[in-house]
Design a protein that fits this description.
- This protein has 261 residues and is α/β, with parallel strands linked by helices.
- It has two domains: 184 residues, Rossmann fold (3-Layer(aba) Sandwich); 60 residues, Helicase, Ruva Protein, domain 3.
- It is 33% helix and 17% strand.
- It contains ten helices and nine strands.
- A seven-stranded mixed β-sheet has the order 4-3-2-5-6-9-7, with helices on both faces. A two-stranded antiparallel ribbon has the order 1-8.
- Strand 3, helix 3 and strand 4 form a beta-alpha-beta unit.
- Helix 5 packs parallel to helix 7 and helix 8 packs across helix 10.
- The longest helix is centred in the C-terminal third of the chain and has 15 residues.
């Protein structure tokens, strides 16, 4: 049995075992997390090597494509009831993992890869590691440091809770069908920020609002959130791509202070 890649699901199946093995090897079981959820396994090119990984004791897979689910059950009977036919973005993951830790890996569908990361942020205190392949541009954006034009909302929010390593680039020729762009593999390790020393809802609002006007200074980006005339700090004269995570935290604290008055 073979599975036909479906464009509306953003499926591009890995066709080179060496690449699949190299990706699987990037998983490091941070914080001794030996339980893994693979998203979008398709025909199991990565699954095969994750099952053999010495640091993975329990592998779950989440697949929305019913044809792929049938294939996975036939080809990987050792997965048993750990093949979950679900939409990762909509599913309550506590139904599978309760409050236990689990890592997230995968050859992530390009069309929802950013959404996958945002959902992982929601479960960040259960997810010590995220490792997988994205469109190269997205992978680079997640790992980018302040000062770059590609540094943005996704960069800041992911780096708020994770330390990011760009592992390597993957050529489009190793896929079937080949995508029109190159891919990049990244590894995200949960950092020491268990919680922020500021209002997290306000923090996200400030990050998103300022980057919505990234060509303007922070002062302009904050006008819809607070009275900027009450603020006096060097950060207000910078553009958002110049601010680090710690800068955004301090900025949020400044806004909080005037809102409480």
């Amino acid at each position: 049995m073979t599975v036909k890649a479906k464009k509306h699901l953003g499926q591009h199946f890995l066709a080179d075992p060496n690449t699949s093995k190299k990706i699987a090897q990037q998983y490091g079981a941070h914080n001794d997390c030996f339980t893994v959820l693979e998203i979008g396994p398709g025909m199991g090119a990565l699954t095969k090597f994750l099952l053999e990984h010495e640091k993975i004791d329990l592998l779950h897979v989440a697949e929305i494509d019913s044809e792929s689910v049938v294939y996975l059950n036939e080809e990987f009977p050792e997965l048993g009831n750990r093949v979950h036919e679900i939409d990762f973005l909509k599913h309550d993951l506590s139904e599978i993992f309760q409050n236990n830790a689990f890592a997230v890996v995968g050859n992530f569908p390009y069309n929802i890869s950013s959404q996958i990361l945002f959902k992982c942020i929601e479960y960040r205190n259960q997810i010590p590691e995220i490792m997988g392949m994205f469109q190269k541009e997205v992978a680079q954006r997640v790992a980018e440091k302040p000062g770059s034009k590609s540094y943005g909302v996704l960069s800041v929010l992911m780096q708020t809770y994770y330390d990011i390593t760009y592992c390597f680039t993957v050529d489009e020729k190793v896929f079937n069908p080949p995508p029109k762009v190159k891919s990049g593999v990244i590894r995200c390790i949960r950092n020491e920020r268990k919680s922020l020393p500021c209002d997290e809802v306000l923090y996200k609002k400030i990050v998103k609002s300022t980057f919505n006007q990234r060509r303007k200074t922070i002062r302009n980006g904050l006008k819809t959130i607070c009275n900027v005339n009450e603020l006096n700090d060097r950060l207000l004269d910078l553009r958002p791509e110049r601010l680090s995570v710690d800068d955004f935290i301090r900025l949020t604290q400044l806004v909080e202070a005037i809102q409480k008055v």
